[in-house]
């Protein structure tokens, strides 16, 4: 599945029109499917449709007609000046004898549901004046709001804060990156030819169908030396903060993702855990001989982070570089050696590498991940909500994950999990997007059971369940499809 920008969606729309596809059909399906979602969420509750003069408004006018035909009370306020398909949608509604009043008169009452059909992908710049006031009034109403295609105002502020949003044709960037404004998310197919939706120049939304075939198979004859062994190098002994648990959590992540054996290379005196690991105490960052197929490096390394990474380079193995191993010097050394390496920065670490601010990275994570992959020539996992994986010109946005994951150590678990998939033989981009998906799914499963207050080691422990659900094709979609 692809993630569209408003421009890409418009292109798909135009190409359908060039093939002779009547765009009015797209609008009809959009409005009809949105009416279906309306009925599923709000039943018989009367609707107040607020329609702009563009095609988003047109979708709202179609929805109004379908609700009316189903006997649901509808009041319609529309801006003047419809053209093209939106004008036809208006005429079809008027033919049913519905009164359409000016948008300036919009008002509503307790018990009604607002349908936001003001602006969709055609919005240019932030809403101001009357429209900003209208959106603020809608949000303050405390009535349920169903947004058509996009909550009006997105990606800028002010914006409608919707109860639910029906995306038409494909998901657009704000649906995943400004999820909070969208409420419950639904994706409506509106009859666009499938090949127009599969534009490989667009970022991917990682799905069950794409990731399931990547899962390493475990033959009956498997033994602990045949399914991927991981070396974890990290930890620090000296002045300053100690993240002593970080490499141990990475080891847990690797084991729970299916590693056959985990070797832990740690500073002398470091607490040895988990019981299942093989320990290699060293006085300072160095690489003892290890029989492993991949490495996870840097967790809890503090001032030793880069030294661990440079020592690990000599192994010549696929490597996950995390936390304090994330420096441009280290990245450059891995690129020069032509080693498959996966960098796993959060927004703060990515900002440091890119010479910008965490706010700038968070403002456009797709671009930040792409830029960092380009600058380093390596695979980048930009952790966040959602996490983005970038390699060359490939971008993948991960739809799983929960705010309950915002707790110390979950990133370390992720690094170990990705290393286990590298050790099992997956190429870096595949190991990264599969690892991120399962880690997010583990968070989703736990959050549903326990709510907020997860511990990172519990996320590791939930990885086998996440893996099993993916294997069995039973991953719940993070959005409804209609
Ligand atoms: N993709 C698909 O396959 C399909 C897409 N469909 C639907 O079409 C939608 C896109 O429709 P669209 O292109 O007509 O734009 P839309 O969002 O209605 O807004 C345009 C209006 O907003 C105005 N305006 C802009 N900025 C403004 C501002 N800052 N402040 C104030 N006004 C501003 C602008 O004014 P103008 O600049 O023209 O004066 C114009 O009037 C899409 O989201 C989906 O719902 C479906 O029907 C079927 C298939
Ligand atoms: N709000 C959120 N929604 C989804 N995932 C989140 C959220 N907050 C954090 N995460 C995930 O939790 C992990 C945190 O990693 P990181 O910041 O490196 O933590 P640590 O360094 O403590 O291990 C990442 O995988 C990130 O994507
Ligand atoms: K809208």
From TrEMBL:
Binds 1 potassium ion per subunit. It catalyses: (6R)-NADHX = (6S)-NADHX; (6S)-NADPHX + ADP = AMP + phosphate + NADPH + H(+); (6S)-NADHX + ADP = AMP + phosphate + NADH + H(+); (6R)-NADPHX = (6S)-NADPHX. K(+) binds at residues 56, 116, 152. GO terms for molecular function: ADP-dependent NAD(P)H-hydrate dehydratase activity; ATP binding; kinase activity; metal ion binding; NAD(P)HX epimerase activity. Residues 9-198 form the YjeF N-terminal domain. GO terms for biological process: metabolite repair; nicotinamide nucleotide metabolic process. The keyword NAD applies. AMP binds at residues 383-387, 411. CDD domains: YXKO-related (cd01171). InterPro entries: Carbohydrate_kinase_pred_CS (IPR017953), CARKD (IPR000631), Nnr (IPR030677), Ribokinase-like (IPR029056), YjeF_N_dom (IPR004443), YjeF_N_dom_sf (IPR036652). (6S)-NADPHX binds at residues 55-59, 120-126, 131, 149, 246, 298, 346, 412. Keywords: ATP-binding, Isomerase, Kinase, Lyase, Metal-binding, Multifunctional enzyme, NAD, NADP, Nucleotide-binding, Potassium, Transferase. Its cofactor is K(+); Mg(2+). It comes from the Bacteria. Residues 207-470 form the YjeF C-terminal domain. Its EC number is 4.2.1.136, 5.1.99.6. Belongs to the NnrD/CARKD family. NCBIfam families: yjeF_cterm, yjeF_nterm. Homotetramer. Catalyzes the epimerization of the S- and R-forms of NAD(P)HX, a damaged form of NAD(P)H that is a result of enzymatic or heat-dependent hydration. This is a prerequisite for the S-specific NAD(P)H-hydrate dehydratase to allow the repair of both epimers of NAD(P)HX. Bifunctional enzyme that catalyzes the epimerization of the S- and R-forms of NAD(P)HX and the dehydration of the S-form of NAD(P)HX at the expense of ADP, which is converted to AMP. This allows the repair of both epimers of NAD(P)HX, a damaged form of NAD(P)H that is a result of enzymatic or heat-dependent hydration. This is Bifunctional NAD(P)H-hydrate repair enzyme. It comes from Thermus oshimai JL-2. The gene is nnrE.
